[in-house]
Amino acid sequence: MNKAEFIKGLEEELELEITLTAETDLKGLDEWDSMAAMLLIGYVSNEFGLTLTADDIKNISTVQSLIERIGVEKFN
Amino acid sequence: MLQHFKGIHITALKTCVPSQVVSNAFFEELLSPKEIKIFEKTVGIKNRRWATDNITALDLGYEAANSLLKEHDVAPSEVECLIFLSQTPDYKIPFSSNILQAKLNLPQNILCLDVNAGCAGFVQGLGTAFSIAQTIKGKVLFVVAETLSKILSHKDRGTSMLFGDGAAAMLIERNTDDVSETYFQYFSDGNNADAIMIPDGGYRNVTTSHSFEIEKDDKNNQKNRLQLAMDGARVLDFTLREVAPSILQILKQANLDKEQIGAFLLHQSNQFIIKQIAAQLGVEAQKFPINIDQFGNTSGVSIPLLIQSQAENIKTLDKLILSGYGSGLNWANGIISLKQTKIYPQIEL
């Protein structure tokens, strides 16, 4: 999965009405709440087999910061 | 702590839920249609049962227990111990099991014991019941009952949609002809005691007029200090961190492989959590039955409700995992067979 596919998939998973970019602040989204966090954890877990923790969720800001937490090397 | 039993069984089980069904449409003022859709997709709850004002957890527990004793043809004198497990008892004093003893016409030479425990309570209470059953000739009647609907603020998105009411009654007894094994294992993390809490109304923070004042958070969730407060992110993190490794630990201690387990009966708190735990364990999701869509999170009652709704399937399986996790924070697992268990049809009150 490349970065663009990941971002598009995340946008669909969170059912966003805006277009997500690497610079989007996830916590600033109208849709951001605990359920969005669950969708995010589920999406990352399904795609990368990585379970994000509450600390990860707390530390993530932009989509790029999420990608860096997952590991940039995992995106081709 | 790990417990190991041989020849102790749940011989009969009966569940009772309130007849009042509350669907997600009830929360339309709290969540938009899109938010409700995402809630159903993640948490998985569509309906829950809520007791009406005049029905308490003790009433639900009584109906389950009374029906169980009648249908299973048990004389009151056969019951030597009654355990009532709940976080929503009728009174602070006296304790509920004593009231239930009289309502069920059980003899006076009986041990009545209340256990205050949450979502891990089914396993905690069952382990207590097994421990007592091992030392007596008669039966232990274990009743778990909750009316969490009565402690919720309907203006708090973090709790109001999640919880439901219900009760289950079980008979636990010794049968040395069948020496099948049962294991229970318990964990506690009291450092996170405030993650799920009703702050006032006990004797640390006694009830004052201030207890009834509505407090708002930054998302405009509103509740008073006598209603349930939950730090959802902390609880989610705890379950995703602790439960799967603890299940692997009890399997190892029982010398079993996860492949030998017929079904994993997990506390029904959140469909997303159950699926994540299945993935963490590397076990196919079909082995993790789910009925949270019908009943919501009923705390310690959720696993018995799941057993009831999976009755036909469960009878054919040799070994089952039980796993509860929640307020305390506490978590507890069991390995059990329910082949000997007569599971009676659910009733409504």
From TrEMBL, chain A:
Domain Carrier: residue ranges: 1-74
InterPro entries xref list: ACP-like_sf, PP-bd_ACP
A Pfam family reported for this protein in Swiss-Prot or TrEMBL: PP-binding
Designated name of the protein: Acyl carrier protein
Protein species of origin: Flavobacterium sediminis
Domain of life assignment: Bacteria
Signal peptide interval: none
